[in-house]
Design brief:
Nuclear Transport Factor 2, Chain: A; 6 strands; six-stranded mixed beta sheet; globular; 146 residues; Nuclear transport factor 2 family protein; signal; alpha+beta; NTF2-like_dom_sf; single chain; SnoaL-like
């Protein structure tokens, strides 16, 4: 009986340690994603890429590959996003669980027909302090009223 109590105590202590570790992992992941968002809004490609793992991938939900590796990610954002002076994202909602951060974003941008905005959900997976995967869900896009 006493051995059973020690085993139960060890399991309880182990679970307590896991519970204490989880907030740190979540805050680390959230911090990396926030740094990435800040760099995105500053159009700072170096700071932006510093948040990505060299082998990171970007996919469109559910699993359509868009970009693989730091070189493709950098080329896309440098030539197709950060050259838009209007580009700016705000996070309306953020969910953090362990190493996963889910942002619901509103993005101001310039579309083919003029200034506009779009909504998106970005699901970031962070490992060892770097973004290793982003899954994008693109929402509606609209033009600003003039």
């Amino acid at each position: 009986m006493q051995a059973l109590n020690r085993t139960a105590m060890g399991v309880a202590l182990g679970l307590t340690c896991i519970a204490y570790a989880a907030p740190s992992l979540a805050s680390d992941a959230q911090s990396v994603v926030q740094q990435q968002l800040n760099a995105y809004n500053a159009h700072d490609i170096r700071a932006f890429m510093a948040t990505y793992d060299p082998g990171a991938e970007v996919v469109e939900f559910p699993a359509k590959p868009l970009m693989k590796g730091a070189a493709q990610i950098q080329e896309f954002y440098e030539t197709k996003r950060f050259n838009d002076p209007r580009l700016h994202a705000t996070v309306d909602k953020r969910i953090v669980m362990g190493n996963v951060v889910i942002d619901y974003e509103q993005i101001l941008n310039t579309q083919a027909a003029g200034p506009g905005r779009m909504e998106a959900i970005a699901i970031y997976e962070v490992n060892d302090g770097k973004i290793t995967k982003v899954t994008l869900i693109r929402g509606s896009a609209s033009l600003d009223k003039q």
